[in-house]
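Reviewers of the previous submission asked for a worked example of the structure-prediction workflow described in the proposal, so we include one complete record here. The input consisted solely of the amino acid sequence. No template or homolog information was supplied to the procedure at any stage.
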Amino acid sequence: MCSSDLDGNRVLLTHYCIAHNQPRMEAKALHDGNLEFRFLDATGLASANTGHMHDVSFHFVDANHLKESWRFFEDGKEKMTENMELARLR
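From that input alone, the workflow returned the following structure tokens.
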């Protein structure tokens, strides 16, 4: 689960993680249908080495299709990537 907020002139995303922390990510780029968010800070994170979602990319394929790629970091390195493809049903 996540939410996004306009914070001044930037867009922030908060990920409410099953790992019991809440990473906040800042929108960094919007180009060719891709919106990228990068790690800013987090609540509930014991240290920067604790496992957390670090960044996410959204690719807006068309009005009915979205691809997401979430990267999980631990000990300062990428541990896994979770990719999803979503489609709107009529």
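The longest strand covers residues 52-62. We consider this example representative of the routine output the project will generate in years two and three.
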